[in-house]
Amino acid sequence: MATIKAADQVTVLDVSDAYNVVLSSEAYTFLGDTQGAAAGSKCTTDAAAYCGNNMCSVVTVDAKAIVCPTGVTAAVSNSGTSKVTITFTLTAKLTTACEATIPVVVDGVTINKKFSFAVAKTGATGAKGDKGDQGVQGPQGPQGVSPTVSVTKANGVTTITITDKDGTHTQTVKDGTNGTPGTPGTNGKTPYFHVKYSNDGGKTFTSNSGEDVGMYIGTCTDYNPADPATVGAYTWARIKGETGAKGDKGATGETGPQGEKGATGATGPQGPQGNAGADALTLTITSSAGIIFKNNTGSTVLTAHVFKGSAEQTISSTGVVSGIGTVKWYAGGVYQKSSNTYAVGAGDVPNSLAITCQLEA
């Protein structure tokens, strides 16, 4: 099996101008009422075609081939010329957006174009507007009369006099007789709250006549300001609990996180320099007339160049590079010839063709 020492590849293309169909307009909006657009409404569009940058002289549209939505018909004029006119007519009220498909034929190629219809309906009556702003304040009215009230009392009669805009009004009221005084209430008593402390459940007071805080508290409420001197006068309650038992030993804690990584050690000494490598072999392809053909015309010559290091090597007409190997050409993966050049014509390229040049030993 041959050893490939170097290789290069190019792709040769043969392209053709594309057909493009354009419509003078691709959509139309019919004006309608609140329900939709009325039957009988019409719109038109023109169809033209281009091959590359060149306008096609013959464009064909068959009205019967146009796919129209329900309630729309199509008519065609000037078919077979460079510009075809298509007229759409509504045969029923159009209520929603829709589209038609127009097959346009150019040089035997059919290209479908879409034409869209829309309806601009009259809007419904709007909601009642907001309440208007408050009007300008009217002029100030005449100055009013402030009423006055006077009260007098004489000989057991109270006289009330009111003067307002309607005049003076007087009303008299006789004073009432005082009622019988009530029975005096019982004298009140002042309650006193007493607190003492004990360490034996209320059998005896703590020191300082029970004023020092102890394990029990005694309370008493009476009407005497002085504290009762007997323990029996108090109600006792324990306020200090006994010492609890010692708790169990807690569980062992989790292992702590790993410590930080130590510093990187110093860089070791550089090793000795290795032996010099052999000069590299490279292969490149150049073209005399590019690698793109148009409309199945044109040709080019591909030339191989072999370099050892930076020095270009001589390639014989049979592809031999002295002391290195042989240059071989492949088209589409199939071996063609051994040579320093390879000629390609547009007829050799269906659409695209990968051409590989290899230096083999």
Features:
361 residues, mainly beta, six-stranded mixed beta sheet, five-stranded antiparallel beta sheet, 25 strands, 0% helix, 45% strand, Collagen
Describe this structure in words.
- It comes from Coprococcus eutactus.
- Pfam families: Collagen.
- With 361 residues, the chain is mainly β.
- Strands 1, 18, 21, 22, 23 and 25 form a six-stranded mixed beta sheet that branches.
- The termini are close together.
- The mean pLDDT is 88.
- The protein has no helices and 25 strands.
- It is 0% helix and 45% strand.
- Percent helix, as a range, is under 10%
The class by helix and strand makeup works out as mainly beta
Question: Got a strand count?
Answer: 25
Oligomer: single chain
Largest sheet: 6 strands, mixed
Q: Which stretches are low in confidence, meaning pLDDT under 50 for 5 or more residues running?
A: none
Protein name: Collagen triple helix repeat (20 copies)
Pfam family, one: Collagen
InterPro entries: Collagen, Collagen_superfamily
Biased composition (Low complexity): 134-145, 176-189
